[in-house]
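Ticket #4471: structure output looks truncated?

Reporter: J.K.
Steps to reproduce: submitted the chain below (264 residues) through the standard prediction queue, then opened the result file.
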Amino acid sequence: MKRTIIAVCASALLATGAFAGEMKLAVTTSFHNSGLSDILLPRIKEDTGIEVQLLVVGTGQAIKLGEAGDVDAILVHSRKAEDKFLTGGFGTHRREIMYNDFVFIGPSADAAMIADAENAADALGRIMTAQAPFVSRGDDSGTHKKELSLWAAAEIVPEGAWYSAVGAGMGAALNTAAGMDAYIMADRASWLNFGNKGNLALLYAGDPILFNQYAYLPVNPDKHAHVKTELAAKLEAWLVSDTAKVLINNYKINGKTLFVFNAE
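Returned output as attached by the reporter:
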């Protein structure tokens, strides 16, 4: 009788996902710095029973962790790198989850006058012409990759005393920019959730090229048989659910939206 009761209880717990297990998810520092993970993870555990262990790194490092099979899935924001990950057979597929945009932050005095820029290339050109201090993450993250692509599109080679690559995550890079009274490119969510703004202000945004898509890519079990494919699939199903949509779209700081859900 006692065994029967225990079995019934165990079945009930399994049905609610209480014993689903743990999985590792590599996520970008920008996603973590936004504070959204603090909103999503408790609900994911409640709804699915999955204990998601985050490895917070830049996109480049997240992809390396996926390639090595050190995580079960990755959540990143660099389409070119993601496509290469898939082409190499390291991921099973790519699922878009949400987006925001990149913005240019700088001293409120705006000596380079980027607030008047016509587009992102013009903003970067003004910074270079003024030789105004600029902080780059310099860490092979999705944000860093995007920044480099924008300099290249503007036909500018960023180098010199005015350009500082700090090799750090988004929060640390923003802190450096605040301390130096420098310009920096950041994702909107990290900026809105950043507490040490100092004299910095959001000066330029709106160019379509600054669109910032986040995508979920499960690691391919054909490459690494030990990855927890079922848990990765269960997490993906939750991330594209109506529950996730509401939580992501309703996550705001001072009334400002940080991410927009666009999973299909």
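Triage note (M.O.): checked the attachment and the full token line is present. Residues 1-17 have pLDDT under 50 and may be disordered.
Status: closed, working as intended.
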